Amino acid sequence: xxxxxxxxxxxxxxxxxxxxxxxxxxxxxxxxxxxxxxxxxxxxxxxxxxxxxxxxxxxxxxxxxxxxxxxxxxxxxxxxxxxxxxxxxxxxxxxxxxxxxxxxxxxxxxxxxxxxxxxxxxxxxxxxxxxxxxxxxxxxxxxxxxxxxxxxxxxxxxxxxxxxxxxxxxxxxxxxxxxxxxxxxxxxxxxxxxxxxxxxxxxxxxxxxxxxxxxxxxxxxxxxxxxxxxxxxxxxxxxxxxxxxxxxxxxxxxxxxxxxxxxxxxxxxxxxxxxxxxxxxxxxxxxxxxxxxxxxxxxxxxxxxxxxxxxxxxxxxxxxxxxxxxxxxxxxxxxxxxxxxxxxxxxxxxxxxxxxxxxxxxxxxxxxxxxxxxxxxxxxxxxxxxxxxxxxxxxxxxxxxxxxxxxxxxxxxxxxxx
Length: 418
Ligand code: HAM
Fold this sequence. Notes:
Strand order of the largest sheet: 1-5-6-11-10-9-7-8
Bound molecules: histidyl-adenosine monophosphate
CATH architecture of the largest domain: 2-Layer Sandwich
Number of domains: 2
Strand content: 15-25%
Radius of gyration: 28 Å
Order of helices and strands: HEEHHEEHEEHEHHHHEEEHEHEHEHEEEH
Distance between the termini: 58 Å
Helix content: 25-40%
């Protein structure tokens, strides 16, 4: 009886070798762009105390209320596979006393995250993000610079049709006042709202701006806007962020209806979408979170950050074929065990000399070995006998016979000559 085949869990995916090459390209672009601006890499654990996300992302959010993978460990602690990176990085900042370093502390990460979401194209249950967190400065230049870095990364990885929307949420105090005004407005129009929005007036009235329901959308067109209610300092901060973005000639649209699914944001809030994506058009997003570190028991520490979805960046940049890896040398042998040992040794010496060398590993016939060498695109093919090696340069067509310990030198010479 044959066992049923197992598959990866729904909403997850394997990173196959071609995908891995494309992902390495994103990682290299992130390291180059973020490193040049003074960001240094950080990686936090894949799971954290559940409390960390409840306190910061917010109990009323979809993420905390229905999307977390939460479990108890052997000693009954509640742990959660991280659904996002901001709270863990802030936890690490406090835990390692980074407030003593020159501020802002600028960190970047490239890690997997976990959300129990409805799986579809561009939306997974394990997905990867490149993100930054710049902790410890309220300077609007930090907001503007971080947005520019994100724009640069999206451009470098070839995200097509990226569009930036930007708004400001003000401080928690101005938001609380606005929230009451919005709730009163929603209650006054409750009969036209969807059941879901109506049920969430008290808990999360801002989500009404996000609704697809036609009646709700119509009501929201006349709703009061937070952006029009910003206090003096908040308005000034936003004006300065905009001024700097304008100075850098970055195109954006101010969208007062922008909402994001995390509760920790204050002041600047933004999202990049790409029309090259389908329904899940958000490719990256972020903003300020001036109160988050205090929520974790630290001092007032204004901060800003963003995250970009790796899979969405790949989708939005189209299928760019991964560059085939370069293979300098294929080492084969006629079949006898003695010649295999010679081939084995030549491949090892070639790698020690910095060459990319493939060894015959499947007992193929000589004809099969030549085919395999062509398939991997090897420039040189060496067929090793115990005493001598037939070496062919497929670029020039030149053939020569060399001693086994002369193969590497001959390949290096051949490479230099062309
Ligand atoms: P977020 O908007 O929840 O923000 O996620 C950022 C990006 O991660 C999204 O724009 C999207 O590209 C990708 N993403 C989110 N969920 C999924 C999913 N289920 N499948 C595939 N990709 C997904 C945050 O996580 C914040 N921590 C960003 C931030 C950093 N804010 C301040 N600092």
